[in-house]
Amino acid sequence: MASSGGGWAQLRQQARSLETQTETLFHTYSQYASMTNIPAKPSEEEERTEAQLNDILEKRDSLISQLTRLLDSESALTSSALKQNNLSRHREILLDHRREFSRLKSNILESRQRANLLSSVRSDIDAYRNRSPRPNQDPEAAEADYMLDERRRIEGSHSVADQVLSQAYAVQENFRVDREMLGSVQRRIVGVAGQVPGINSLIGRIGAKKRRDGIILGSFIALCFLALLFFR
Predict the structure, then answer these.
(1) Distance between CA 33 and CA 105 in Å, rounded?
(2) Is the pLDDT at 1 greater than 60, yes or no?
(3) What is the DSSP letter of 42?
(4) What is the pTM of this model?
(5) In Å, how far from its chain's centre is CA 199?
(6) 26: nearest Cα among 59, 53, 62, 55
């Protein structure tokens, strides 16, 4: 029993030590999320800090599993409510730290993507300036020309989208006209069928045959699908 108590105390001490190390690493890792000029690629220190956090979180998860097995191996009399509370607290802290780690990683990724986007825009502007230099043109005027070109390109894409929509509306109108024409033809056929004896019964037999063929085809497709699932 003393050995069990000593093992519990030792594992808890390791868990508390790793929790403290995690908070220290969070302080270092959070600085990358708050950087105003974050580099385009993570530095070696950032990658090392992230790897250390991943490693410590995995170790803590393993320690909690060991504490759980140790607590389950004890009898109901020796398993105190205090140990249960301690174990629950370690789980809660680990869950909070995993959430914080995920949040920091997401913030760093967003900051890096935003910085890369701004850098790409600046590079495009610089390339435009170098590609089409004009005498006595200041940088602000060159940047304004670049923005005007971008606006023209966007307006051109809007024009293409408007043409596609116009074509879609035209197709929709054609479908409407065809539907009305088919409805008119159907009404005429029904009118003729009502005037000619035997046409209604013939149309009824044709419809019944179509329904029967549809049922047979649907059953065959269902059997093929079931066979495919069975022999897969």
Answers:
(1) 8
(2) no
(3) -
(4) 0.50
(5) 59
(6) 53
Give, as one character, the DSSP assignment of residue 198. T
In 10 A of CB 208, how many CB atoms? 10
**φ and ψ of 74, to 5 deg:** -80, 155
Q: Which amino acid is at 104?
A: L
DSSP string, 150-172: HHHHHHHHHHHHHHHHHHHHHHH
**From CA 124, how far away is CA 118, in angstroms rounded?**
10
What is the C-alpha end-to-end distance of the chain, expressed in Å?
A: 55
Poorest-pLDDT segment among 111-115, 157-161, 193-197, 220-224: 193-197
Cβ within 8 Å of residue 111, ≥6 positions away? 33, 35, 38
| Residues 58, 60, 64, 65, CA torsion sign | positive
Q: For the residues of 174-195, what is the DSSP string, one character each?
A: HHHHHHHHHHHHHHHHHHHHHH
Cα–Cα dist 197/217, whole Å = 32
Q: At what angle do helices 139-195 and 199-231 cross, to 10 degrees?
A: 130
* Rounded CA separation 74/29 (Å): 39
